[in-house]
Specification:
The strands form 2 sheets. Strands 1, 2, 3, 4, 5, 6, 7, 8 and 9 form a 9-stranded mixed beta sheet that branches. This protein has a 3-stranded mixed beta sheet with strand order 10-11-12, with no helix packed on it. The protein is an alpha/beta fold. β10, α9 and β11 form a beta-alpha-beta unit. It has one domain: Alpha-Beta Barrel (TIM Barrel), CATH 3.20.20. It is about 35% helix and about 20% strand. It starts with 10 loop residues before the first helix and ends with a strand.
């Protein structure tokens, strides 16, 4: 796989820098910084831990005020996180738990320890990731395949390398790693369209770009073409961020999910 591409930051290098700021090893456990725990309507109801620390700086991010704010929240062990997620799930009778807010895969040991906690439970763990690190490291995908109740949602930041670079500021060459993440996970035993699937931000995508994107997914596995399409959620703080970057989405929804006419 060639990683030739345009100028921009390297999210692999950023991951290493972020790790030192949001993780700490104590004994045999790796602690990760979280800024909150909550229930929510996504997936029909899910208990969520929102982590601090991301290797991308998306210009439409709903959690941009917290994602790399290393003064918020606190460090938690995997056991503490597991207890908090279970408490929320039990209170609201949720079937699903997840990590969100930033990039969970940055803290590999923490994540794997947390997955072990839920592996023997009745909960489905949804790993929401941009896929960069899983695409970069095939062994990471193999390690994730050890957990039978894990579903991996690879969230593409745009539908082309050019959009990826525009929306994240990262070098366009790393867009390929999101596809590689799907390939690595499927090779490791995840079932396309069931245990692993693609999501994609199309708030700034042309129809042609979306069609081409689906073709690339089909080339990996035809079962990946049922994509979870993401629109920009127009929270007030997201609108402020878009204005800062002089971006105007083509497709957006209000915080309550109602489509908004942007053009």
């Amino acid at each position: 796989m060639s990683l030739a591409g345009s100028q921009g930051y390297d999210p692999i290098e950023v991951s290493s820098n972020i790790y030192s700021k949001v993780c700490r090893v104590e004994g045999n456990s790796e602690l990760r910084r979280y800024f909150r725990f909550r229930g929510g309507r996504w997936y029909g109801g899910v208990a969520t831990g929102d982590v601090v620390g991301c290797n991308l700086t998306c210009k439409f991010c709903w959690s941009w005020r917290f994602r790399n704010n290393f003064s918020v929240g606190k460090l938690y062990t995997p056991h503490q996180v597991g207890m908090k997620l279970v408490e929320i799930a039990e209170n609201f009778r949720y079937r699903y738990v997840r990590l969100s807010g930033a990039e969970p895969t940055i803290s590999k040991k923490h994540l794997l320890e947390l997955l072990k906690i839920f592996d023997s439970s009745n909960y489905v763990f949804i790993l929401e990731t941009n896929g960069i690190l899983v695409g970069y490291d095939r062994i990471y995908a193999n390690e994730l395949s050890n957990f039978g109740n894990l579903v991996v949602r690879v969230s593409f930041k745009g539908t082309s390398a050019e959009e990826f670079s525009l929306l994240t500021g990262a070098s366009s060459k790393f867009f390929e790693l999101q596809f590689k993440a799907l390939e690595n996970l499927i090779s490791a035993g995840f079932k396309a369209g069931k245990d692993v699937y693609a999501a994609a931000m199309i708030g700034f995508s042309s129809d042609r770009s979306i069609v081409d994107f689906v073709k690339m997914l089909r080339n990996i596995d035809p079962k990946l073409v049922d994509v979870d399409w993401e629109y920009v959620i127009m929270y007030r703080h997201v609108e402020d961020l878009l204005k800062t970057h002089n971006l105007r989405p083509l497709r957006a929804v209000s915080p309550d999910g109602v489509p908004k006419e942007m053009i």
